Amino acid sequence: MRWYWIDRFLEFESGKRAKSVKNITLAEDHLHDHFPGYPLMPNSLVIEGIAQTGGLLVCESTGFTEKVVLAKLSKARFYSDACPGDSLIYTVVVDDIRKDGAMVTATSHKNGELHAEMNIFFAHLDDAYRDKHLFEPGDLLKMMRVLRAYEVGVGPDGAPLREPQENPPVAPTNSGGQS
Amino acid sequence: MPTKDEVFEKVQEALVEALGVDDDEVTPDATLVGDLGAESIDFLDIVFRLEKAFDIKIPRGELFPEDVWTNAEYVQDGKVTEAGLEELRRRMPFANLDEFAKNPVVQEFGNLLTVADMCRFVEGKVEVAD
After folding, report:
1. Half-sphere exposure of B80 (CA within 13 A, CB side)
2. Does residue B44 sit at the A interface (CB-CB below 8 Å)?
3. d(C-alpha A141, C-alpha B86), whole Å
4. How far is CA A107 from the centre of its chain?
5. Using CB atoms within 10 A of its CB, is residue A82 exposed (0-12), middle (13-18) or buried (19+)?
6. In the predicted model, what is the mean pLDDT of residues A83-100?
7. pLDDT tens digits for chain B (130 residues)?
8. Cβ–Cβ below 8 Å for A101 and B44
9. Euclidean distance between CA atoms A20 and B70, whole angstroms
């Protein structure tokens, strides 16, 4: 199953902020059930797209060494509906990244107007999960590439964002390659 | 240097934002778990917000000494031992443990901390004006 709820990154500033776009289309099967004859982008999937934007931002900034999970939505407000044909621009700003987790503030804009805003808290799973995979080796690198993070990204030093050189970005138990 | 009232206001704001409760629910006597509905993940969120609001560092285990619960010397048969209570008193001078000590069942501990305890904890980390 392919679980992408953003289409590409527009901006990616390591450890600080990222902007992504989600284009909504009638080709998305789920919209024909939500709702029949009246397709609306589910708010939960807007949250998922913003969490993917923020989750990759947090993962990248820690060198993909932490297992980052969406732990909590402290706040989420939606101001309008989003429909097929709409482009949603998600902006995620890191408030804080620390050992236990990270907090981000995010907005969604539709046609230049505020569509939604939220605070997301990501937790870093602790050592009890050290040996468990959340992703297969290389999954996150593929996501980063297909979402064009390395084409638009900027590293902490202001230079273009670079792919990790030695170890693929995976949950930290990687030993390279095998699944 | 904040006053005690200012500490309360900031703690209140952190709890309102972290727990989605109203200002008037966050009274000094309100318990975080029982009255305000805090769950375990909320405590990480609260710690983040307090650190930011007061520009302090709260090392893991300082506000909630979770390692006590896994120590066989401190917990036996689901109850905190005398040594455990002593350890909790030493580690949590900001909390009133008298009521808990009467029947120190581990499960009840989660409901011990009040908003006033949180304020006292913060006051122990920042200088407070009289």
Report:
1. 26
2. yes
3. 50
4. 13
5. buried
6. 95
7. 889 999 999 999 999 999 999 999 999 999 998 899 998 889 889 999 999 999 999 988 888 887 888 889 999 998 999 999 999 999 999 998 888 899 999 888 878 889 999 999 999 999 888 7
8. yes
9. 44
Report ipTM for this prediction: 0.74
* Whole-prediction pTM: 0.83
DSSP state of A172: T
ω into A35 cis (within 30 of 0): yes
Q: How many CA atoms lie within 13 A of B114 on its CB side?
A: 13
Which tokens in the block code for residue A128? 């009890």
Torsion of CA B14, A54, A75, A124, to 10 degrees: -50
State the helix-helix crossing angle for A43-61 and A139-146, rounded to 10 degrees: 110
pLDDT confidence of residue A174: 41
pLDDT at residue A165 tops 80: no
Residue listed under structure tokens 């004006």:
B129
pLDDT tens column, A116-145: 999 999 999 877 677 777 777 788 999 999
Contact B44 A95 (CB under 8 A): no
Cβ neighbourhood burial of B84 (10 Å; 0-12, 13-18, 19+) = buried
- The residue annotated as part of the active site, out of A34, A109, A115, A124, is A34
Q: Does the annotation mark A34 as catalytic?
A: yes
